[in-house]
Amino acid sequence: MTADPVLSERLAGAFAFALDLHRTQARKGTAIPYLSHPMAVAALVLEDGGDEEQAIAALLHDGPEDQGGRATLEEIRRRFGDGVARIVDGLTDTYESPKPPWRERKRAYLARLREEDGAVLRVAAADKVHNARSILEDYREMGERLWTRFNAGPEEILWYFRELVEILGARHPGRLADELRRTVAELEILRAEVV
């Protein structure tokens, strides 16, 4: 199914809200404005055939987790509707602050992802592709210093990405899952050359 290429003012409103949410954030361990990530995820969603609702969810997917928890999710619901809020909720690995331990959160998220619908899976795949691309590029540039940015070590992060490859390859096969698989495989090859 191909999405309608006509996009509405709702997408512009979502972009403005995402900018407000993430205005002062940077990508982990960089000076790159955080907004670059949801913008890239939204682009990947649209390129994968996603619709405007999925693109809006992509722009807002990290809002609740990083900026205000359930109150932010309810604001997303108020502004953009139940469908967008449902997708964002499906992509949020915790509303708690402080966040639970990394591995516990990721195991719970992976278990939920195995049950999510196609809209959540498409946005999740786009999110993970962009994250994996960024990690791979930064690893090429920084080497092992890269891992100090994260709340988990390289083996845990690679375990998580291997699980994502398996789930998304089975539940949302296509370009995004294929790119995720290739990117993670390349990251593992580079890492194996170092250790």
What's the arrangement of secondary structure elements?
Elements: H1 9-22, H2 36-47, H3 52-60, H4 63-66, H5 69-80, H6 82-91, H7 102-113, H8 118-142, H9 154-171, H10 175-194
Helix pairs in contact: 1-3, 2-3, 2-8, 3-6, 3-8, 5-6, 6-8, 7-9, 8-9, 8-10, 9-10
Textual characterization of the structure:
The protein has one domain (9-194): Hypothetical protein af1432 (Orthogonal Bundle). The chain is mainly alpha-helical. It is globular, with a radius of gyration of 16 Å. Helix content is 70%, strand content 0%. The model has no long low-confidence stretch (mean pLDDT 94).
Short description:
It contains ten helices and no strands.
Show unreliable segments: none
CATH architecture designation: Orthogonal Bundle
**Secondary structure category:** mainly alpha
Reported for the largest beta sheet, the result is: none
The first-to-last residue Cα distance is 44 Å
**Remind me, CATH topology?**
Hypothetical protein af1432
Q: Estimate the mean pLDDT confidence.
A: 94
The first-level CATH class name = Mainly Alpha
Notable characteristics:
Hypothetical protein af1432, 70% helix, globular
